[in-house]
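Morning, I've got a small favour to ask if you have a moment. I've been staring at a protein lately and its backbone has me curious. You're getting the sequence in one-letter code plus the fold written as tokens. I've dropped the whole record in just underneath, so have a look:
=====
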Amino acid sequence: MRSHLLLSTGLLLCTVLAAPALSQSSGGTPVETRKANGAGQKPAFEGQTRAAQPEARPEIKVDIVADDLPKAWAMEFLPDGRMLVTAKEGTLHIVSEEGDVGTAISGVPDVDASGQGGLLDVALAPDFETSRMIFFSFSEPRDGGNGTSVASAKLVEAEGGAAALEGTKVIFRQMPTYDGDKHYGSRLVFGPQNELYVTVGERSDPETRVQAQDISSGFGKVFRIDIEGKALADNPFIGKDGALPEILSYGHRNLQAAALDGQGRLWTVEHGPKGGDELNRPEAGKNYGWPKVTYGIDYSGDKIGEGITALEGTEQPVYYWDPVIGPSGMVYYDGKAIPEWKDTFLIGGLVTQGLVVLHMEGDRVKFEEHVPLDARIRDVKVAPDGSVYALTESRRGASTIIRLTKA
């Protein structure tokens, strides 16, 4: 079911036609003006946080494409314009272009949906049109706890609309297993050479977060594997004693946003603590600091570790937010439907409840723009026609897919 509204600052997401859409000129003023949580913390370089808004922002129209979905986590476009949508409870659905939600696809393995767990991201194989293979991540129940795992399967559709996963196989497991319910990550991104990037969290607790610095542990890492789940031969820790060969980078907190840029390079956004969400461009073998180095503070109000924001041997974030945006889902916009957003990153905001638009200049953020949607945004994708689709998440359990176009 499609409903229509225009977007203007402060309006609730609803099916009522609203008055004029967002169209402002605010050059020079940052979106974020509140006091930072990390008192006294200073950025490492100019423009690392609180970038100015662009001089002009597009007027945005919003259509509700589908509503009353189960609490959803991710979506992915199929070649014909339909969408695969994962539901946290452990079901996978096909949503038609008209917004009709198909019945649960069979063949999905059991998930541990407690806390932040569930059926998480989904990605199409690079050769999906011929192979019909998909990949998905989930919090896998295991003896002694759980962990983020990645599975592959063939999507088979029968006449009448029924669909199933065949040959479902777990190809990769984040280890060690841990009895917790937080910070699973997780995003799946295929690179230009068909490599699969898998982002995971460090499981949140004090005893696990320190393992983000340990290359023999799978906590707080970006992995780089092939479609069988094996480490690629040119990964940075191949042959290093005790190191997991699948690791690309380490020292991450909870990575729930990842995308390739126009050059085919991986970018990620991870949740910080109370302050300290980070935009990074993970590079092979590099240490991104957590929990030794971070902006922001602990939820308790205490400092993290020694309370430092820089340390030799660790990488500075390209950009950070304090207070946080609550990043989830990310896409590089190379469409034509909203020309003002050409070559930007669009990031879902769980806390800011809208889209965060990063206008880049080289590998730095030049402008930051917010599109308020009054809804927690769990995922964001660009449709074949260049429109932007966002997946909302309600704490009460329901989700909605909305479509953003230039008014």
